Amino acid sequence: MGRAVTVATCALNQWALDFEGNLERIFRSIDIAKRKGARYRLGPELEICGYGCSDHYYESDTLLHSFQVLEKLLESPATQDIICDVGMPVLHRNVRYNCRVIFLNKKILLIRPKISLANAGNYRELRWFTPWSKARHVEEYFLPRIIQEVTGQETVPFGDAVLATKDTCLGAEICEELWAPNSPHIEMGLDGVEIFTNSSGSHHVLRKAHARVDLVNSATAKNGGIYILANQKGCDGDRLYYDGCAMISMNGETVAQGSQFSLDDVEVLVATLDLEDVRSYRAEISSRNLAASKVNPYPRVKVNFALSCPDDVAVPTCMPIQWRHHSPEEEISLGPACWLWDYLRRSKQAGFLLPLSGGIDSSATACIVYSMCHQVCLAVKNGNADVLADARRVVNDETYIPEDPREFCRRVFTTCYMASENSSQDTCNRAKLLAEQIGSYHINLNIDAAVKAVVGIFSVVTGQTPRFSVYGGSSRESLALQNVQARIRMVLAYLFAQLTLWARGMPGGLLVLGSANVDESLRGYLTKYDCSSADINPIGGISKTDLKNFIQYCIETFQLTALRSIMSAPPTAELEPLVDGQVTQTDEADMGMTYAELSIYGKLRKIAKAGPYSMFCKLVNMWKEICTPREVASKVKHFFRMYSVNRHKMTTLTPSYHAENYSPDDNRFDLRPFLYNTSWSWQFRCIDKQVNAL
């Protein structure tokens, strides 16, 4: 009867400009889809070149190599008898578009350009691409000669059209178009399109996955239909982790769910669904049918092919499932861990080095590396040959099999406690115990000799010896002495990262991990070019509050009992002298604000787009039970002074895993000046006027 259609979607760990690897992963996904009986295969956005090519999109080489990969796909027997939908950049009449290229049996059916471009937050698509603005309009696209020789076609349809097969009608959306208020699937559904596809390049943000799932399900809840979403996964060369979550939905309910975090480079979802379920669902929605009778029709590209079989009465179809979401603590444990593994294997380094202070931030970073080791061992146990091959390359042992996370951790992870005369025995013990429990190769060293040598040079040159405040020195002297300690730790971290394996008779070098959280970066509570300066930082986009919850999760999940004392200790930089052997310096006292307050300031500044005056107006109501208006004004002014004074530090911030929408990442997410008028005279005067009125 031709009712049951079998379709496939996938999540691929593509890598920007890795045309060879990207092609191989595309082929694998098509092979899996065909073996599972699919007649249509959808891939992620720009999967041929990789989503994160950035300014490489300007290069003609990127377009050329994308068409060369397309040529390989078109001419391969592996792509026969299945509609393949792949993503790549295309230059049409000297304008560059982000496109889907849909083909079948060596013939290109349609090139569909993206209509709504993502251009907020981490996305800059309008920098490289132009949106297709001609609704329901199709033009002729003249194919390059290398493609003409394979397809025998001189031109193909290019534009906003849908595919009409023998048994159904398909329409494409690309990533941002699902999030747009006027999504194409609305009008397409009214025009009789029964299967909607969406190829995405959507990255992970804590607590975001549910929004994507809700959008997909709601797309067909009001209008009926089948919705298929593909997404990129993994680190494709920058701060983002694309979090998979490929899915298939029908009539508002999920029928297939892909993993959000996984070390599998290729994941394929296949579902068999009954088209009659779509038609009967739509039949009783009278408001939809009235709107459909007046809709402006889409151009249809006729395809002499069916997604179903003639005799399919006995074919079982998929039933709705309940989507399982990860908790934020699970997201922190898995997302940055997968990102670290991609970075490690693709950078061809031999492991990581982390300055482990015994505090919450560096301990959370260590736990993420330990989680990565768990994921590697689990993937190998489940038969992932790619992960096994990568693990053997990392440890330089072709016979090695990672089975125990602690043992693998010792091979790839070095932790280093860098003591000074201002360090307490408590933090030293905490760091050592945590290193023992996760299995890292742990080093204890003392930096006092190096600090004295550097300060000694200054004293010889100037004839002055700076002192800490507790010994009668000024705040300038004390801060400079703290910064010397912090910066020497950075220098030593890189020295040990380069030569520790050499000293142990092992090949390779280590990547240095940073461990400054998003709140400290926002406030600027870090020394420029200290241990926050590293190769990468897995927690740089995560708040202190979430990190504390993650530490508790690790205590329960990994039985890391060493974390209990770390959780209960007040956060401290340990850069000022001890008093009777005890730490007196604490982070929150130094900052003049709590971490909980910092999170609120960060969200208001970035997400709510609040300047000093707007932030005061919001907080004076939010905190009316605990603060007077004058106290609120004082807190807001202090935050903006400290934020603006320290904003220059963001220009050199270590590349961090993007996890929060209030990240101060200066690279492309949070674009601000780094030389402010830190008096904020006009803004603060507006606040004072309001305080007096209140």
TrEMBL record:
UniProtKB keywords: ATP-binding, Ligase, NAD, Nucleotide-binding
Q: Which InterPro entries match?
A: C-N_Hydrolase, C-N_Hydrolase_sf, Gln-dep_NAD_synthase, NAD/GMP_synthase, NAD_synthase, Rossmann-like_a/b/a_fold
Which CDD domains did the record assign?
Answer: GAT_Gln-NAD-synth, NAD_synthase
This enzyme's EC code(s): 6.3.5.1
Broadest EC class? ligase
Q: Which residues form the CN hydrolase domain?
A: 5-275
The pathway to which it is assigned is: Cofactor biosynthesis; NAD(+) biosynthesis; NAD(+) from deamido-NAD(+) (L-Gln route): step 1/1
Could you say which protein family the record assigns here?
In the C-terminal section; belongs to the NAD synthetase family.
Name recorded for this polypeptide: Glutamine-dependent NAD(+) synthetase
Give the source lineage, highest ranks first.
Answer: Eukaryota, Metazoa, Chordata, Craniata, Vertebrata
